[in-house]
Amino acid sequence: MRNHFYKFLISIPILIIIISSFLIRNSEAQWVQMSNGMGSDQWIHALASIGTNIFAGTDSNGVYLSTNNGESWSEINSGLTNKCVYTFAVSGNNIFSGTADGVFLSTNNGGNWTAVNNGLTCNEVWTLTASGTNLFAGTYPDGVFLSTNNGRNWISVNNGLTNKRVSTFIVSGSNIFSGTDNGVFLSTNNGRDWTEACSNLKQKGLQTKCVNSLASIGTNLFAGTGTSMGGGVFLSTNNGDSWAEVDDGLGSPKYIIIYTLAVHETNIFAGTKGGIFLSTDNGRNWLNKDQGFVPVSNTFSLLIANGYIFAGTYDNSVWCRKLNEILEN
User: Fold this and answer.
1) Most-buried pick from 96, 117, 181, 274 (CB within 10 A)?
2) Which residues fall within 8 angstroms of residue 9, CB to CB, at 6 or more apart?
3) What are the pLDDT digits (tens) for 163-201?
4) Is 186 in contact with 173 (CB distance < 8 Å)?
5) C-alpha dihedral, 15 to 18 to 24 to 29, nearest 10°
6) Where are the beta strands (DSSP E) in 209-307?
7) Domains, the chain
8) 227 contacts 210 by C-beta, under 8 angstroms
C-alpha cells in the first residue's frame, strides 16, 4: 500500500508537467489578448516594429511601446501633441507617426516625438510609407505629400490624383500605389504624377472603389475594400489595369469590410469587420483564423514581427498569436 502511495506522489509532478504542456500548446494555438499596461478597451489604428520593439497607435491615447512581444506596454507620448494616431512608417531607426495633427518623428524608439510638418497643409494624416529616402503622407482632404528629408519639409504631389482622400499606400518595385475613396492610383515617378490604376473600375473588376488597404506578393497586387455597403478583396496581376474579386471564404460581399492586409512570404492575411482570415493561394481561398478571439472584433491593423502576428482591434486592444502556428493549422 505504501509503495502505491509513493508511486502516486512521484506521478503528480509528471502529470502537472503534462497538463501544463498541454495548456501552453493550447494557448499558443489561438489568439491571446496582450493589453497589460494599455487596458483592454483600446482602439488600435496602427502597429509597427523596429527590431524587437512593437509600437501601437491608438485612437485617443497616443502611442504604446512593448519590448517583450506584447506581454506589457508603456505609454510613450513625450512631445506628441495629438494622441489620435492613425498610422506609422519606419525608415531605418526612425519611426514616423501620422496623427490628427500632422506627422511626428522619433529617433529614439518613441522616447520623444518632434512635429515635422513644414509644408504639410493638412492635419489629418491617414497613411505614411517610406520608399528609400522618400517619405509619403496620405491625407484627408489634401491628397499626397512627399518629403525627401525625414519630414522636415513637404511638397504636394497630386498631379492626376482625382480623389484626395488617401487611405493607404504600397510600394512595389519602382511603382507607388495609393488607395483612395475612388479607387487605386499609380505613380511611376515618386508621386510627381498619378494615373488611375484602372481607368474604368466597374467594367474592369474593382466594383467597390473605396480602398482601405493595399498589399503585394511579387507582381500580385491586392486591394482591400469596403464601406457600410460592403466590399472585399481584389487582385490585379497587371499593375492595376484589371482586377478580379477573390473573396471565397470571406462571407457575403454585402457584409465584408476589409480594413487591413498583411503579407508574410506567399501568405496574405486580411483584417476585417468579421475577424481575421488567411489565404495561401493569392486570395483564391480564405480560411477563418479567429480561434481564441472572444468576442470576434473588428481588426484595423495587422503586424508580423519576431515570429508573431499582432492584431490591433476596435475597442479590444492588441491580440497576438504565433505565426508558425497560425500558418500550420
Assistant:
1) 96
2) none
3) 999 999 999 888 999 999 989 999 999 999 999 887 555
4) no
5) -130
6) 211-217, 220-227, 230-236, 244-245, 258-264, 267-272, 275-279, 287-288, 299-305
7) 2-328 (2.130.10.10)
8) yes
